[in-house]
Structure formats: structure tokens, C-alpha cells
Amino acid sequence: MAIDGMNHFTVLTSDLEKSKAFYIGVLGLTEGYRPPFAFPGAWLYSGDQAILHIIAGKPLPVEAQGVIDHMAFTASNLQVVVDTLNQHGIPFKLHRLVGEHTWQLFCHDPDGAKVELDFAASEPEPRAINTQLGS
């Protein structure tokens, strides 16, 4: 058996519309085909790949389950993303990866899932960073 790549992540949500607004309106994914499951949700795409599945109507766990810490996406247009997060009042933390100089931006979705966005080292340092997560 060999792994050929990552298929998708699945997150639970307490509010499907809020989650879609974040992942579509803020992060730029698009909603696409989803099989007719018996429970509400959405499949969000990057290009033609459904990379994020959202499940609604299922209670969120009281305590975190498993050991997954965060989901990471390759991204572009750092300044546009920073401006969009600031416009929506979404706190974030931004730094350069030691040695690689890749930009790493961390924020949380409406239900608290940690999201990492990785930008090329060649992207210029953004201006007007107004909201930041604590350490």
C-alpha cells in the first residue's frame, strides 16, 4: 500500500453558514458537488479537488478528540489574506518559518479549528497587521 496524497479534511460545525462564510468568503474555497447525504454539510473545493468537508447537525464534542492539531493549506497573496482577515475581525498570528523563511499564518475557524496558511518566502511582508492571536 502507498499513500498517493491527502484527500480531504473533515470538520464539524455548530453553524454551517458561519463555517461556509469563513472558508469561502475569507479563505477563498468554493462550494461544489456533495453526495446527497442524510445530514447537512458542504464540500469545499480548491480547484477541482474537494479538500474540506464540513458536517453540520452533529453535536460538537465537549472535549477535543484525537491528536490532530491543525490543518494547513498552501496559499498565495499574503497581503490580500491579511486584509481580508482584518476586515472580518479574525485574529491571526503571522511569522516566518525559521530557515525556510516561508510565511506561516495561523487563525481559527468559527468553531475553533486551527487553520494554517503557508505562503512563499518571496511574498512581501504585509502592512497593516491589526489583529493578532496571542502566543
TrEMBL record:
Gene3D superfamilies: 2,3-Dihydroxybiphenyl 1,2-Dioxygenase, domain 1 (3.10.180.10). GO terms for molecular function: dioxygenase activity. It holds the Pfam family Glyoxalase. The keyword Cell cycle does not apply. Keywords: Dioxygenase, Oxidoreductase. The keyword Zinc does not apply. Residues 5-120 form the VOC domain. This is Catechol 2,3-dioxygenase. The lineage of its organism: Bacteria, Pseudomonadati, Pseudomonadota, Betaproteobacteria, Nitrosomonadales.
